[in-house]
């Protein structure tokens, strides 16, 4: 799908959001404001790209351009360096911390501590929304149809102070991203857990493998009753993903290893480590991994199963700090791989129990 088509779809899909995620609770005034900011294509320079352009509801709040490993910005030909992660369920990742081990944060490398800090980034990124400064963003908000709503939430004259207004834009977007529209828990898995539906035989086999011999749950675990089941340990790992030579920009000619968390912390101890993504709506968010190298869930499971089989995969992009405890040569059959995929497909929101 080309970028222009994606932009057109933003407005259409905004109207279809409830069909994808089910009935959500009514939004608060701040969440409703954040939703308008999230879908506003006039907040880029030039106009034409919104947060939703790369985090679209119908694509599991990820990029609908599943034929590309990375996203194209508002300027044609400019691409980001990583696969766009889903915005759904991102609220469940805790604040970034180094205490007791690295956990939480936003972006693949945790460089934003929380959703508010994450929301500040794309507006000013030249390969995303390309605004030259914060004042340009706030000028567009002040000229919008919802400017009065902004002042109703943050106070009269709240658009006059550029720095504070910019922080409030991010705060409102984060508030919307924290709402039940992005985290509705309406998958088949949730219905099975509630006793209103049952897994098929293949799905049940997949669940048993996922939590057992497939070792998936070691990093993509259930909440254990202490938190919702979003299937992440909120930590960081280098699982030996190969470099992606299909990037649509010049780095394929001058490859530079993506150090992930190690680059953010400037510490080789963490080189090659990326955040464990959650698995909610995973079937809708292809391609996979930080560099989009794996195109299907079957490929993902096969990689985990066979990474260490000689000749099965190219060498890792970063050879330091590779996690070999739960990835490598698991000995799963082709049918067992398919069963795990079948289970993960039950994590897609919008499931309706047959009457």
Name the features:
Cytochrome Bc1 Complex, Chain D, domain 2; two-stranded antiparallel ribbon; globular; mainly alpha; 355 residues; 2 domains; 33% helix; 13 helices; disordered N terminus
Radius of gyration: 20 Å
Instruction: Name the CATH homologous superfamily of the largest domain.
Output: Cytochrome c-like domain
CATH class of the largest domain: Mainly Alpha
Helix content bin:
25-40%
What is the 3D shape?
A: globular
The number of distinct structural domains comes to 2
Structural class: mainly alpha
Query: What value does the average pLDDT take?
Result: 91
- Overall CATH architecture of the largest domain: Orthogonal Bundle
Output the CATH topology of the largest domain.
Cytochrome Bc1 Complex, Chain D, domain 2
Output the strand order for the largest sheet.
1-2
- In terms of per-residue confidence, which ranges show pLDDT below 50 for 5 or more consecutive residues? 1-23
Cα separation of the termini: 36 Å
Strand content: under 5%
């Amino acid at each position: 799908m080309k970028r222009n088509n994606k932009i057109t779809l933003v407005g259409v899909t905004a109207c279809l959001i409830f069909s994808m995620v089910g009935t959500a609770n009514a939004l608060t005034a701040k969440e409703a404001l954040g939703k308008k900011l999230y879908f506003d294509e006039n907040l880029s320079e030039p106009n034409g790209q919104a947060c939703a352009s790369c985090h679209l509801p119908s694509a599991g709040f990820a990029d609908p351009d599943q034929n590309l490993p990375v996203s194209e910005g508002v300027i044609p030909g400019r691409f980001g360096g990583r696969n766009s992660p889903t915005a759904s369920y991102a609220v469940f990742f805790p604040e970034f911390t180094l205490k007791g081990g690295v956990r939480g944060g936003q972006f693949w490398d945790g460089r934003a501590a929380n959703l508010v800090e994450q929301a500040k980034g794309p507006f000013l990124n030249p390969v995303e929304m390309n605004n030259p400064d914060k004042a340009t963003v706030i000028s567009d908000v002040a000229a919008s149809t919802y400017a009065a709503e902004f002042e109703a939430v943050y106070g009269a004259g709240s658009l006059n102070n550029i720095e504070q207004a910019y922080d409030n834009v991010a705060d409102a977007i984060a508030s919307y991203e924290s709402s039940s529209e992005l985290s509705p828990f309406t998958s088949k898995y949730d219905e099975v857990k509630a006793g209103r539906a049952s897994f098929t035989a293949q799905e049940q086999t997949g669940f048993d493998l996922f939590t057992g011999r497939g070792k998936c749950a070691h990093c993509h675990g259930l909440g254990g009753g202490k938190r919702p089941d979003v299937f992440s340990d909120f930590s960081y790992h280098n699982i030996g993903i190969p470099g992606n030579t299909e990037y649509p920009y010049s780095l394929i000619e001058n490859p530079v290893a993506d150090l992930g968390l190690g680059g953010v912390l400037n510490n080789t101890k963490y080189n090659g480590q990326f955040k464990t993504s959650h698995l909610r709506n995973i079937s809708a968010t292809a391609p996979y991994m930080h560099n989009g190298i794996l195109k299907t869930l079957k490929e993902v499971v096969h990689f985990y199963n066979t990474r260490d089989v000689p000749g099965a995969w190219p060498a890792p992009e970063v050879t330091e700090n590779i996690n070999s405890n739960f990835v490598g040569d698991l000995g799963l059959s082709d049918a067992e791989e398919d069963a795990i995929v079948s289970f993960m497909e039950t994590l897609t929101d919008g499931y309706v129990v047959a009457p």
